[in-house]
Automatic annotation (TrEMBL):
Gene3D superfamilies cross-referenced by the UniProt entry: P-loop containing nucleotide triphosphate hydrolases
Keyword ATP-binding belongs to the record: yes
Classification via SMART domains: AAA
Gene Ontology MF annotations: ATP binding; ATP hydrolysis activity
Name of the protein described by the UniProt record: ABC transporter ATP-binding protein
């Protein structure tokens, strides 16, 4: 088994991922002391690829996504886009980068301007960035975008305000707005978690269609592995725990053949088992349900106080490194590193 400094990436014909997070960390000063919300994360997104970031609340998903979007600057490490560190870009190039990477929030109600109609919401960025010339062309494009996100007939929506729409409709408008600037990557941050199940499924289906039709890459953030499975099956998934990536690999492997005890526990915790999800032979036993504070991380593996496979002296010593455990799949677990990963079921 070899240590991986960089998460192995499926690359495009040019051989380069579109975006990489290269050893990025984010430290926040809090009342309880400094916390590492993200600690030396390596991730890459290839053109048109879905990369899912999965973990419980507080694991650092949003913090990582905000760094990827250029909304916050990492405390250390680099965010590379098209081969360049985004924080070394000149102002105009940085603006272009921000256009290329669009963020869709969990709560569109908070991100859509309540005083703008849907038409104004969609035409403002088109006109501001000169994507189209003139109000008529902008209105036509807004019409097309609403059709793309299945808000039809568009004339029923263009003059409405966000509060006149349902949650699912607002989320579709937020996606349409993200599409106004022809992004190369969409960061979808728990973007369906506030929706009822049936609406969530229809919004996910719409996003999946856009993923396939537009060839846009996704950084797809969710606490729910079943949703990562649904949306990111052909992509890769990174599992985060307390600021660190603990397992990474092709989504089918993460779902059907997880190796890290934390990933296995997440799969066991899915309340209504998806019949396709292969359950680990024995449900992963946890010693504790309590998540440690980022301000007082346990020594060694941060998961060790909860882990059923904890070994005294092994797991509470050094921080485990993310190492390759199967081709394309890596995990940060001392026990898996020592014993090797089981062969996945055929
Ligand atoms: N600006 C900030 N200042 C201080 N602490 C922060 C800040 N932003 C996030 N944190 C802390 O960093 C940790 C990671 O937060 P983050 O929002 O990235 O996690 P998450 O996995 O996205 O969780 P959730 O699903 O609840 O959004 C949390 O402990 C959070 O309280």
């Amino acid at each position: 088994m070899t240590a991986v400094d960089e998460t192995p990436a499926v690359q495009d014909a040019s051989g380069k991922p579109l975006m990489t997070l290269d050893g990025v960390s984010q430290v926040f000063d809090t009342k309880a002391g400094p916390i590492r919300a993200v600690d030396q994360a390596n991730l890459s997104i290839n053109p048109g690829e879905v990369l899912c970031l999965v973990g419980e609340s507080g694991s650092g998903k949003t913090t990582a996504a905000r760094m990827a979007a250029g909304l916050t600057r990492p405390s250390s490490g680099q965010v590379m886009f098209d081969g360049t560190d985004i924080w070394s870009l000149k102002k105009r190039d940085f603006r272009d980068f921000r256009r290329s990477v669009q963020y869709v929030h969990q709560d569109p109600y908070a991100s859509l301007n309540p005083t703008r109609t849907i038409q104004q919401t969609l035409t403002a960025p088109l006109l501001k960035h000169g994507v189209v010339k003139g109000k008529q062309a902008a209105a036509e494009r807004a019409y097309e975008l609403l059709t793309k996100v299945d808000l039809t007939p568009p004339e029923n929506y263009l003059s409405k305000y966000p509060h006149q729409l349902s949650g699912g409709q607002r989320q579709r408008v937020a996606v349409a707005r993200a599409l106004t600037l022809d992004p190369k990557i969409i960061i979808a941050d728990e973007s369906t978690s506030m929706l009822d199940v049936s609406i969530r499924i229809s919004v996910l289906a719409m996003l999946g269609r856009l993923r396939d039709e537009l060839g846009v890459g996704f950084l797809f953030i969710t606490h729910d592995l079943a949703i990562a499975k649904y949306f990111g099956w052909r992509g890769r998934t990174a599992v985060m725990y307390l600021g660190r990536i603990v397992e990474f690999g092709p989504t089918p492997r993460i779902i059907n053949a997880p190796t890290h005890p934390y990933t296995r526990a997440l799969i066991d915790a899915i309340p209504e088992p998806d019949p396709d999800l292969t359950r680990t032979k024995n449900a992963e036993s946890l010693r504790s349900l309590e998540i440690p504070s980022l301000a007082h991380l346990p020594p060694g593996c941060a998961f060790h106080p909860r882990c059923g496979r904890f070994e005294d002296g092994l797991c509470d010593g050094d921080v485990p490194q993310l190492i390759q455990v199967r081709p394309g799949q890596s995990a940060a677990c001392h026990v898996v590193a020592r014993d090797g990963a089981d062969e996945p079921a055929a």
